[in-house]
């Protein structure tokens, strides 16, 4: 008991930060009050002089990104929506300063890793818990255990991001000796299964990309560059065979091809005939095309909170007010940003995503590389920085890793954990 109390006393800051994952993933409505709690704990540590302020300059890009949205509110036509956006994105300007500190005695990432992993597994367990009575009643596995049915509190794409970073966290815990290799494989297996059941395209692509990169690096280090190249070529051939020989994958590809052909054959007719519940392919195809049309008309942006208005008017003019009323976003963060706050905002977003990858490579941080690659890849298929889950998570995790890097680089040899 004494050892536990001592551990809590020494690492209370890390434990409080780790607890935020449980709130963000499972009880997101309490995110605001918990951020206030973290701010109070950080302030107390400043007063006790256990931490010192040290600004992370890269994080200022997020503050600059927020300023673009703040400027865009000047010509908004929907002040309520614009105000909500500024409220949701306020962490872009808050977190770079709130979490710009270092802990001279050292900052351990173990509670952070465990917090993310356990919060993600708790969400998975809850999805199964509510899915069992659903399955008993409806006797439908897809309806009860796939996509949003398995993640009622969080969009599947965001949940797949948490699962991906949980896998990386599990790897680091294993590397630090927290558990054996068998436990690592079990954890990763469960998290991969969760990702597969969530059926997020970007999530599936992310774990495939990460797995491929890690496997190729292993082959290069364990054998040689030639072996790595041979395995890569064989893998590509097997992937092609898998795509064309697996029925449901082949059917999805054919359906996508037919949908695209129908759209470009007659865009107006395609939009007019959209059902009330279009497929994800149909939705993205229409929204990407419509967004590009509006971007061409408004290269400097339509203003904060105005995206739904302009896209809706475009779709209504093409003869489908029912689809317009659904208010689908562009399903692409780069298109969303360009349309809403113009080329200036897009440049900042590009600096955050591509610059973040370069920054992570220079820091040789696998966790940050995965984090920013995930943001980059997911932003191609979803407007990842429009909901609080994405807005908060990426910046929060980046700032925590920054705190650890700054703190541990100042530690004396005898102060290591």
Structure description:
By secondary structure, the chain is mainly α. The chain contains 19 helices and two strands. It has helices at residues 2-26, 31-47, 60-72, 79-88, 91-98, 110-138, 141-145, 156-175, 181-198, 201-222, 225-245, 247-265, 267-272, 280-297, 307-317, 321-325, 333-363, 366-378, 388-408, and strands at residues 52-53, 101-102. The chain has a two-stranded antiparallel sheet with strand order 1-2. Helix 3 runs antiparallel to helix 17 and helix 6 (110-138) crosses helix 8. It is globular and about 70 Å long.
Question: What key phrases describe this protein's structure?
Answer:
single chain, 417 residues, mainly alpha, two-stranded antiparallel sheet, 19 helices, disordered C terminus
SSE inventory with pairings:
Blueprint: H1 2-26, H2 31-47, E1 52-53, H3 60-72, H4 79-88, H5 91-98, E2 101-102, H6 110-138, H7 141-145, H8 156-175, H9 181-198, H10 201-222, H11 225-245, H12 247-265, H13 267-272, H14 280-297, H15 307-317, H16 321-325, H17 333-363, H18 366-378, H19 388-408
Antiparallel strand pairs: 1-2
Helix pairs in contact: 1-2, 1-6, 3-5, 3-17, 5-19, 6-8, 8-9, 8-10, 8-18, 10-11, 10-18, 12-14, 14-15, 14-17, 17-18, 18-19
Q: Can you describe this structure in just a few lines?
A:
With 417 residues, this protein is mostly helical. 75% of the residues lie in helices and 1% in strands.
Structural class: mainly alpha
The unreliable regions are 411-417
Termini, distance in Å? 20 Å
Largest sheet: 2 strands, antiparallel
Determine the fraction of residues in helical runs and give it as a percent range: over 70%
- Give the number of helices: 19
How many E-type strands?
2
| Overall average residue pLDDT | 87
Strand and helix order? HHEHHHEHHHHHHHHHHHHHH
- What percent of residues are in strands? under 5%
Q: Radius of gyration, Cα only, in angstroms?
A: 23 Å
Form type? globular
